[in-house]
Structure formats: C-alpha cells, structure tokens
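LOG
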Amino acid sequence: MRFLILFLSGILTAMTLVIPEISLIAWISVVPFIYIVCTSKKSYLNGLIWSLGYYGVLYYWFVYLYPLDFAGLDDFQSLIVIIVAWVGMAGMQSLEHAFAPLIFKILNKKFNYLTPVIFASAWVIIEWFQTLFWTGVPWGRLAVSQYRMLPALQSASLFGSLFVSFLIILVNGFFAMILLKILTREKTQIYAFIAVGIFCVNFIFGLVALNIHKDTGDPVRVALIQGNIASGDKWADDSLGYSVNKYITLTEQAYIEHRPSIVLWPETVIPTVILRSSSLNKIVDLAQSIDAIIIVGTYNEDENDNLYNSLITFFPDGTVGREAPYYKRHLVPFGEYLPMPDFFKTFIPALAELNVFDNDIAPGVETAVTDTIWGKIGYLICFDSIYETLTVDSVREGAELMALSTNDSWYKDSAAVYQHNGHSVLRAVENGRSVDSSMGFTPLEGLGMGTRSGDIDPAVISFIMEKEGVTAKDVEGVLNKKSGVLGLSGVSSDFRDLEAAKNSGNERAAVALEVFFYKVAKSIGEYAAALNGADAVVFTAGIGENSPLVRREVCKYLTFLGVEIDEGKNSVKGAELELTTPESKMKVLVVPTNEELVIARDTLEMVRGGK
C-alpha cells in the first residue's frame, strides 16, 4: 500500500504539469511522499517509486513521436525505440531524483519546523543538479506547473524558478508535518498556519507585482509566423521551395494586416544552410519590402565545416547577420547529438540512428546578442529555453528582448508543447529587473515631462482641491495630462514646438524649457551623488537623440563635473556619438534607443505564453 500511495502521489503531481488548469494541486500532492519518507527507513526506494510515477507520466508524450519514419525506422522499430526512450528517460531521471529523500534523511535529525525546509532544500538541489548533465534535463521542474497561475510564479523574479519549486515543496512539507504531529498528539494549527501563510504571501506578492507594472507608449508589433508544416514533410527532398514560399506568403500577409517591425520564423524552418541557398535573396528582398527585421531558423556552417542549428537575422536595409549568427547552445541528446556514442552504438544502435544528420550538430557558445533599432535582441532555440543560465547570460550581455524560435511539431498537440512553453514563461519572469529610475510609483515622480508635472510638494494637491473645489481624481488628471512643459508654456508638449515658439519670442515657452533644463541637470546631480561619481552622462530617446538645444543647455549646468562638449558634434541628430572634447573629465554620449521595446518584449512573451 505504501508503494501504491507513493506512485499515485507522483502521478498526481505530474498531472499538474500535464494539465496546467489543476496547478493548485501541486501545493498538496507531494504531502503523502514527504509523510512516507519521514515515517519509513527506505528513503531512496521511496523516492524512486514516487519519481517513477512522476516522470513516467511527465514523459508520456514520447508516444506522439510515433512513427519515427524520418529516422528511417519502420513501425515496429519505432515502437521499440519510443518505449526505450520513454522508459529510459523516466528511469534515468527517477534514479537521480530519488536522491532527494536520501539527502533529506541524512540532514534531518528530528521532526520540527526545519523539517520542511530541509526537504525543500534537498528537492531543489536535485532540480539544480539536473541542469548539469544530459541525463538530467530540467524538463520536469516543479515550478513549470504554475506557469498558467502567474501570481504564484512571480517570486521567480526574486530568486529564480528553483525558488518557486522550493516554496511548493515547503508548503507540502508543512502540511505533511500536520499528519506527523497528529500521530504524536501534538498541536498542528501552527503548521497549517505556516503552510497557508507561505502560499498566501507568495500569491499576494505575485498579484502586486503583476498589477503595479504599467505599460506606456505604443507597442512594437511582432509577428510570429507558423506555417504548420509537419516535421516529416519539412525534411522531404522537395520541401525547401514550398516551405520558403509559404513563410514568405504568411509574412507578407502579416505585413498587410499588422505592419510588424519584427518577424520571427520557427526553428530550422529552412532545413539547409541558408547562406548558400537560392532562398537567401528572397528573404533579403522580403525584409526590405516590408521594412522589418526577420529572424529565420536555419542551419549554418563554420570554416571547419561544423554544422550548427542557427538563427540568422535579416535587416530592413538588406544586410544579413552573417558575422554573428546565433548557434543553439544546448542541443537535444539523440536528436542533434549522440551522448556516449560508443555505448549506444554498441548496445542500443536504434537510439544512435535517431539523429537527423550523419554527424553531430555542433553546440554554440556565444550569446550573439544583436543590436537593432528596437534594442538588443537575444536568442534562444528550442531546448535552450529550459536552461535558465542561457537566458541569464544573454541578459547580462545586454539583451532587452529574447527571441525564442522552436519547432515542437514533433509532439503534435501533446502536453510537451505546453510544458516547453511553460519554461519560456519561467525565463521571462526570472529575468525581470528592478532599476533605480527617475520614475517612481507612477510616471508623475521625477522629471517633468510633456504633460506630467514631475516632483511637486505633496501639499499642493490638497491646496488645489480646496482652492478650486475639485476632487483628488481631478487633480491627478491635471498633473498627468495638463502639466509639465504643456502647462508651463501653454503651447505644446512637443519640444520641437517649444523650441520654435522660444525662437519666435514666446516667453512662456522659454521658461518651460529652462525649467526642464534645470530639472534634468538637478536629477543628474542627484544620481552623481548617489553613485559617488559617474563615468558618463547618456542622452537618449526622442529629445536626447534629436535636440542639440536640450543637450547643450543641460550640459551648461554640469561644468562642476568637468563636462565640456564639442559644439560641432552636438549639432548632429539621431546618431550614436560622444559629444565631449578630449579635455572633458566626464563623457557625454548620445545613444539611440526605443522606449517601446519593453512593450515589444511583453507582447512577445504574452503571445509566447498563449495569451
């Protein structure tokens, strides 16, 4: 009976990854496992039975690969290989995961408030270990079960998705302690309170995190093109022309209907080395004709004839990212390379035949972050997305938008497609960053803007309410929509209009601009003090890139920092350059950017997340 309960507990937990609508069950489904581990001696065996139930169900989607005719296998051979792969993957991961209760038993000396913490710690040690070797594969990370319940997932932005797994097991652990204490007739209320409290605090944090984030500006349009060409058909000898023409047609249709700025095609949609293919010029012409960046999944070779699963970026100006293509960094075992080749070729030759190519695909090592007019784009291909360190590396290299290209048609409409997507959601949440900005709780804080007031004395609000007989909502509307340089000048919120009005002798426009210059310089001084000095001042976005007047007048206030700008360089608009003279003690830079990139990134993540 004990083994049956363990096995069923593993199955029930796995079902939360197969059916994300029941994700809440994951917070209690491990309770029987923890209870049995705590009350019996055979910890490794208990862990193995539970894990076989968990991973056996998790990898059920191997059956959707049948038949493996693309690998030259007949129906019977396909059946044998799929059974071996299913049982083998579930078995290998079970053998590893069974060490979690063994580690727990070694570390836990008595049952108290630390018991759930120790069990959760042992659990995430094994989940982390699974990222290190090909036998592990972090596909079954427990946090993936929560990818549809976004409030429960937001704590990954603090400490990563392993922390979410830790919290799930921690809550299960405190519920298990209730059963343990019932046996000893001890009080159990405190354990229930802690379990419910951890869940609620995590959930409330997620709700707050999701609701305080407000998008501003117009989003960049991103088109995700899916031709729905089956994997078997894609690899047919005569498929290349058909695939290229279909994706070109769909991209042109997306352009007509949505005018995208970035277009993403799937992994290996061009199943050949595109840079020497006759299709190359078609895609170059397409990018120019729709005036958009097109990211294409294909193959590429280096000077040593190593073959790579790649992403090639085509730019609207007709250039192609030949010099810095992205190469998939984490390859799929048995699909793109053969681990332990001597062993498998000798003892399980059928598995050795699964590789699409005669030789292994080579792994990439670089992030290949690409600078574009929409900001820096980082890349992931398929399996890359389940390893969090790869996304972290790209973000550290400056990536502001992650483009994930994948081909999950192998799995048809099984849970594998949704589990893979769940990892993408984890990567998005994990890499959210908190930045000290001139905006605070709302865009009203900090600098005055086109129509927003910026910092004001809080007493002004109550004064206006009393003086004018208006509500707080009315005052908020004025501060957001009728203040800033528009309110000061009475002319416009557009700085081009203000400069023209100033040059025509409009005193209010001149005052509005002078206040803005002063406030910007004051803000720079505050940050210089907070940072205990600075290496450079950067002007960016619409005003910073295109207004020599703003740059010159602000820099006049910065002589105390040793700033000295070159007026000739300062006259340039919309280009990346250094404004300062060689004698300047601090650099002043103009760096083009695009504020809507955040919207583009969120849009892509939401589309990728099925929203």
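LOG (cont.) second protein
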Amino acid sequence: MKKLILIVLTILVNNVFAQEEQLTWPREIESGKYVITLYQPQLETLTGNKLDGRMAISVKKGTNDLIFGASWFTVMLDTDKSSRTAALESLDITEIKFPEIKDKRNIRKLKEAIEADVESTEIVMSLDKIIASLEDLDKDKINAEQLNNEAPDIYFRTKPTVLVIIDGDPKLKSVDKSNLEYVLNTAFFIVKKDNSYYLKGENHWYKSNKIESIYWGPISSVPFDVEKLAKEKFPKEQENTEEYSKDAPNLIVVTKPSELIITKGELAYEPIKETELLYVTNTENDIILDINSQTHYVLINGRWYATKSMSDADWNFVDPEKLPKDFGSIPAEGTSISSVRSSVPGTAEAKEAVYEQYIPQTAKVDRKTASTKVEYDGEPQFEKIEGTDMSYAKNSSSTVLSSGSKFYVIDDGVWFESSSAKGPWVVSDKRPDSVDDIPASSPVYNVKYVYIYDSTPDVVYVGYTPGYYHSYMYGGTVVYGTGYYYQPWYGYHYYPRPVTYGFGVHYNPYTGWGFSVGVSYGWMTLSIHSHGYWGPGGYAHGYRHGYHHGYHHGYHNGYSAGYARGRYDSRNAYHGNRRGNLDGRSGQTRSGINTRNNSISQSQKDAIKTSRNNGTLRNDAKTKASQRTKSSTKRNDHYADRDGNVFQREQNGNWKEKRNTNTKTRSRTNNIQTRPNSSTGQRTQTNRNTAQKRQNLNKQYNNRSRGNTTSRNYSSNRSSRSMSGGMRGRRR
C-alpha cells in the first residue's frame, strides 16, 4: 500500500511540474533551419474570450545572429479556472514587424515561417500571468454595476456568538410521519415540537419558546425524535474546528440581512507600518482604525463600512474612492492585514481582482448530447423583469426566462431554449437581446454574465465570468453580491434567491471568495432542504477558519493554501458543482459539455475544434495543433513596445533596445538614452519620449514579475496539496 501511495504521489507531483514547465517562458519552436523564440506575451485587450496582444520574438538561422522582432496576435481563450490555465486557441497573427530589416523578401519568408509554425502550435498560459499583464480593459464597465451598498444590520460581539439567519419570516413545514415541523427558509437546523423550538449547532443543542428571541438557552438533551431527525440531516462526518466549540456560544437569530463581527475579548490593536492606521488582531474580521478620525472600518463582502462607536446600529457604507489615503499604503507583505489591499482601489491587488472579473470559464457544448430539465412548484408563474421585455419564473429553482415567443433556461453556465416553458430544451446559440439590461435589483441579474461566443452546426462555444457567481466590480474593486434582498418562493417547496449578507463572505487574491468561521461544518445543513441555498452555487466550498487557524498569522501559507480548494474546485459550473450534493455528480463533467481539461477523444477534439478568421468560422483541420513548444534556456527578459521595437532588461534595471542593423541580419544593442541634439526643444521632447518609454517598459516588467510570482505560488500550493493527500476531497 505504501508503494502504491508513493507511486500516486509521484504521478501527481510530476504532473504539477510538467504543467509548470509548459507554462515557462520563453518558448522555442524548431522549424527546419530556424529556431523561433517566443517571449512571454504582453496582453493588450480582452473582450469576452477574445484576447489581443503582442510578443517579442527572435529568429535564428544556423550560425547567424539573432533577428529580433515583434508579432501582434488575436486568440480565443479556452480557459480552465480549476488549473488556472488557458490555451491560446485559433491564434491569428495579424502583423509581424522586424525593425530596420529592409529586405522585404527576407521579411516575407520569416513571416511565413513564423505564421505557419506559431499558428499550429498549442500555447498554454497561466491565468495569473494573463491577468497581471493585461494593459487595457473597458474602464467604463468598472463602475457600471448598479449595486445596493446600504449597510446591513451589523452586530459586534466580544464573546463567542453565532449568527443564525432565517430568510424572512419563519416558514414551518411538517416532517413526514411525525409531529415535528422544521423551519423551511434557513440553512440552519431548527425544529419545532409542541410549543418549543430546538436548534442544533456542532455538538450543542438550544431551546426556545420563540424563534425570534435572544433567549435561546443551551440544553443537554432533546426529545428522541428531534435528535433522530438531526442525525439523518447532518453530514455523517463533522469536524469541531473552533476552539470555542467546547462551550456553547451565544446565538443571534435574525430574519433580515445581517452580519456579525466577533473579537476574542476587547479590541486588541497593532500598528500598520508607515501609516496612521491600526488593525485589530484578535478577530477573523478585517477591522482597521484610522487614528486621525478615530473611525473604525470593517471589510464585509468586499465593501467597507465605518463607525465611530462599534455599536450595532451605527454603520455607514464608505465608497472605496473615499477611504483614508493611508489605506493605499498598507504594505503588500510583512503584515497579516495585507489581504485587504484587494479592496483598496489603485493597488496592484485591486487591479488584478478587477481584471479577474473579465476572465471567462469557457466550454464547448455538444448540441446533440447536452440537455437539462426544469421543475416548477405547480404551473409556471412568471414575473416581469423591470427595464426589459423579459420575465422570469418565480416558482422554479432553475433560472427560466421568457422573451417573446421563446423560453430560456440557464443551467450551470449554459443557455438552453424552448418554445414551451416546460421544454423540451435544446442548446441555444443566441441570448435574448435585452439580457444585458437586467437590473441588479432582479434575482436573475447574474445570468447576464453567462455568454455565448460562437457556434457551429455541432457545438456552441460558451463561457461565464465571475459575475455569474455574484462577484461584481464597484469603484475599482470587487464585491460579493448585489446587496439587494430578493423575495424567495414559498409554496410546497421553498426556492431561495441569491443572498449577499450573513455569511462573512471575504475575498483573497489566492483563494477568491470564502465564508467566515461562523459557517462551520456543524452549524449548517443543506440536506434538510430539497433545493440548494446559494443559487448557482460555487462559493459554498472553502471555509475561512480565520483567527483560530492562522488567518492573521499565516496569510501567505496557511490562509492561501488552506482555502485554495474553495476557489479552484468550485468555480467551474461545467463540472456540475452546483448540484453535486443533490444528484451525485459533483466534480464530474456534464454530458455534452467539454472544457479544456476534459478527457475526450482526439476525434471529438478534431470534430469540435474551430478557428475564427475575420469573424467567420473555418474548418481547423489544416491548422490544428500539430506540435508543441518547448521551454527555452534564454532569459525571459525581452519585451516589445507598441511600435514593435524589442527591448531587453538588464540585471541592473537598465533597458537595451535590440536593433537589426542591416540586411546581413546582424543585431546590436543600444541603451535607452537621450542623444545630444542641437535643438533644445527637440532634446526636451526626446527626453520626455524616452522617459515615457522607460516607464511603460518598467510597468510591463513589474506586471510580468507579479504574474509569474502569483503563478508560482499557485503551483507550489497545488504541489503541496497533492503531496499531503489533496485527492481526499472535502467534507461538507
């Protein structure tokens, strides 16, 4: 057995390092007498799954010197967020430039050699490198979200406390073959027997004669039938992960959007270096005190709320752009509060979090085999979506839209359509025209982030961005949830709607969104309900153990590694995570839906693989990926500017331009520096241009370095998880 385990671990680790080698830059292609070196791409724009960029290239023929140039390209991203990688498919080289090479015949030959080989080569990039290197995005969209940022009810406690959330007024439903009733509209286990209510959390039982009461007292025993029901509904395996679990914590039972802030005793502070800020250390919450204004700021769901009193009622939303200036000076490393930089506009972390919003998870959907089904609580009932010509089904757990004479259902990131609200459903290759007009006040707002990119008679190319999982942009940062409360459906069934508050949702650049310590294994059970609690789901994986498990004392290791699976395993709706705990298909790819890492046959790949040319589709059989690049021993220090000039960054930080001097294709290097000029005005302009060019190159260098570091951190965490038994999965 030990030998078998060793073999499995060896395979896992080798796969990790094999992938890391595949993502190493520069890359080389050997083509006849030529060796073509591709330096790490510099990405310019991302629209949907279409990526435009440029890269420095060098070409060497035999013993001749290197020839340097730049190429511009357009590719279609085929992403897999679970592995944080993207294949650059259907690569179309739009231009190649070799500065100072005058012989057009030689240039044409070089272009033909490069185009033939690069376009037929599979290129894989780390998503983290893509995010870090993006230069331009549609900045108008960053503040386009019409969100509700009004503060929820915020409770502050200094003793162990659990926030018990009921989705509106309590709704009771009878348990079959018993005299018990359970509270339908909550993820917590609350059962009524006779005139008493019983609540279970971890190993503790509570009792109260009234649900909405602060007088829930711990008890040592409960009626037999209540305990039997709890054993049936809670997961068989539970962990007591909190040090508070020895003693029964206090309860706060709420029926409105609320959040809970807990400290272990009175507030304890530590200064943040080089700022006039203090942060609270004895909590899992992100709490910062601005010394100058004596105002406390707490980060909840990516939003900042402020108070001077820390009382339950005195909290106000703070626009990210109006945070104290010192927030931007919080160190990126060396302090455990560094994670909040993702929620401070203008920081590199906030920029990358925003750019992450643009990266889609993509898939190819087989028209013939992909399918879905929709269930209603009675006959379909639709409600108009304000500002559109569409309506949505109120009495279904599925997202069903009505537009004109057609009906649409969005199931795990795929659009289906039918002429009837009850189906049958076929894969759709076009979204309703007004889907982009759905307001944030609608419970189906998130489906506007599910896209259809292209189609053939056999397959449809689809994808979704993090907005589908309720991650939105606001004020140069990302926030979770729209902030609106959506009325659930109550009938024979209970269909909850997406929620924003109540679970201490937080963002981390390594792990994405996760839940707070209050949502522990033993406090919530979704199995008592027949329908999931989080809409499209995905973020229900990955709990934040916070203060007690090293959050503020192990950000880069414990925090990032401990919750990585919450991000990597949960973001791919095409793997069926949404209904994994309902129909047993968690982690399994749905029939007819192929993502880049799916195990499908080569004949299937050839059948569905297409490329784009000027907006039209063409068969890709002639240009399918017939070869792979290999890593180069050259340093990854060459960059192309927007004019096609190639520069090399030296170890001392200086830049040298790579020049092709004449038709003999010999190269030389020149420093970026101002040459003396007889005209003062010309010299001043040259100085400005040179300084601007150096600034742009340094920005590119910093972006590339940051992306490479993030990618290595992910690979390191993935490797460590593999070696420590990462295949065991997670309990829920």
